[in-house]
Specification:
310 residues; 0% strand; 2 domains; mainly alpha; 81% helix; single chain
């Protein structure tokens, strides 16, 4: 399967939209899981796109930026990994490790270049502010996003337009003489979400909320086991008797999400109760302090008045 012109243009436009959304709109569409779904939809295989997008989403869970720092571009990595996985027949885990992660890291340099270029438009905005040129402020603010968009669009376009032959050759070797490397890349790609969880847990107050972590893990493991056994039992009964047509689905992610949401609500209510009780206690203490201060003032005035009478 080769990329069509329409697919290349749509994927390029979407990669440019990703960074623009992150800078200006904040619609939450600039996330790897969305990038995988939309790229998979464009390429005609949404399932593969969701697998790659979800894996890279979990990988960057604990990754963030502060101030002007740059981070890996997991969105563009997801777009290219999804496109090449579907277009060349590369396995999803291999595409994540061989394309998704390296591209995400490489585009950090393009992100820094975009920041440097953006300073030109920022200086224009400063002059517009001094001259009270409101139209110029709007124009240069919008144009300031152009270097960011091009920093994603140009690499993605060149990779899709020129890199397909290279990737096809790489897939051929990975499935042949370099099968050992292919196995290693698949293993690395499968473990990346666990690395993302580890990074996230490192920055979360795990010691304080260890009970929720244990409960969530245990309930998920138990429910997964139960649903898997029921599904296996249903498949066996279906083979034994053609009259058995009932289908058992696997554990829905919505059930796990609802369990986690319930724990989050309980923790939120507990923290809000602490916040509301603290000011009340503080106000009572301040009131008693004020009364003590008033008594001291009255005693002082009484002593002064007594001295004046004498």
């Amino acid at each position: 399967m080769s990329f069509t012109i329409v697919q290349i243009l749509l994927l390029t436009a979407y990669s440019m939209y990703n960074i623009y959304d992150e800078l200006q709109m904040n619609s939450s569409l600039s996330q790897p899981v969305w990038a995988g779904m939309i790229s998979g939809l464009i390429m005609g295989d949404m399932k593969t796109g969701l697998i790659i997008g979800a894996a890279l989403q979990l990988t960057v869970l604990g990754v963030g930026t502060f101030g002007g720092a740059s981070k890996i571009d997991a969105n563009s990595g997801t777009v290219l990994a999804t496109a090449f996985s579907i277009g060349t027949g590369m396995k999803a885990a291999t595409a994540i490790a061989a394309i998704g992660v390296p591209v995400a890291a490489l585009l950090t340099s393009f992100d820094i270049l975009a920041r440097f270029t953006n300073t030109y438009f920022q200086h224009k905005v400063d002059k517009d502010i001094e001259n009270f040129n409101y139209k110029g402020i709007e124009r240069h603010t919008i144009l300031g996003a152009l270097p960011w968009c091009l920093s994603r669009g140009i690499p993605v376009f060149l990779a899709l337009a020129l890199g397909q032959g290279v990737v096809k050759t790489m897939v051929t070797y990975l499935n042949g003489d370099l099968q050992w490397l292919n196995t290693g890349l698949q293993t690395a790609g499968a473990t990346l979400p666990a690395v993302g969880f580890a990074i996230l847990l490192h920055y979360l107050p795990v010691k304080k909320h260890i009970a929720y972590l244990i409960l969530g893990f245990t309930i998920t493991a138990l429910l997964s086991t139960v649903f898997t056994n029921i599904q296996t039992l249903g498949a066996g009964l279906g083979v034994a008797s053609k009259a058995f047509t009932t289908t058992f689905n696997a554990l829905p992610m919505l059930a796990i999400a609802l369990i986690g949401g319930a724990f989050a609500i309980l923790e939120y209510k507990k923290s809000m109760a602490k916040m509301t009780s603290a000011p009340a206690a503080g106000s009572n203490n301040s009131g008693s302090d004020d009364e003590d201060e008033d008594d001291e003032i009255e005693d002082a005035n009484g002593e002064v008045d007594g001295d004046e009478e004498e």
